[in-house]
Amino acid sequence: MVSHPLHWIALGFGSGLSPLAPGTVGTLWAWLSFVLLAPWMNDARWALLIGLSLPLGWWACSVTAKNMRVLDPGSIVWDEIAAFWLVLWLVTPAGFWGQLVAFALFRFFDAAKPGPVKWADQLFHAVNPAIDPAAWRKAGFGIMLDDLVAAACTLLVIALWRVYA
Questions:
Q1: Which terminus of the chain is less hemmed in, N or C, by CB atoms within 10 Å?
Q2: How far, in Å, CA of 117 to CA of 109, rounded?
């Protein structure tokens, strides 16, 4: 993790090194950091932070996956962090229970990978770094993409619930 500064980001400042459920631990880190940052944030600051976290995350995930020589390492959790920040920002104002529902839905979509999440997850799994010079950039994009699709699915379910409940 300390061999390159981008590894700190991709590995979620250490949360991705959890031996059990690193994606869940990374999402919990995202939730905790969101709550801690919230008093100093407004919509413009959240938009800037999340907007910058996506290309930075793509770069960090690409470099870290390349250095690990694994297309989609489980210890890379920046994708969960950026995507769950987006979910929390867009469901705000939501109290603890609303955020817990968002957390459970996001983890379901990210772990079970139904429909469009599975498609996004598998989109770049077949790249071959030995013959494709852009393979690691594609892998980094794929790492980020499936969690953004999981976030979109989460937000869709919450929006439908808010409309029809």
A1: C
A2: 7
The tokens for 36 are 């801690």
pTM for the structure as a whole: 0.95
For the CA atoms of 37, 39, 44, 49, the dihedral, rounded to the nearest 10 degrees, stands at 0
Residue 131: exposed, middle, or buried by beta-carbon count in 10 A (0-12, 13-18, 19+)? Answer: exposed
Yes or no: say if 82 and 53 are a contact pair by the CB < 8 Å rule. Answer: yes
Cα Rg for the chain, rounded, in angstroms?
A: 16
At residue 100, does pLDDT exceed 70? yes
Taking only the tens place, the pLDDT of each residue in 66-92 is 999 999 999 999 999 999 999 999 999
Q: Which residues have a Cβ under 8 Å from the Cβ of 125 and sit 6 or more positions away?
A: 71, 72, 142
Give the residue from 72, 106, 101, 104 showing the smallest Cα distance to 86.
Answer: 106
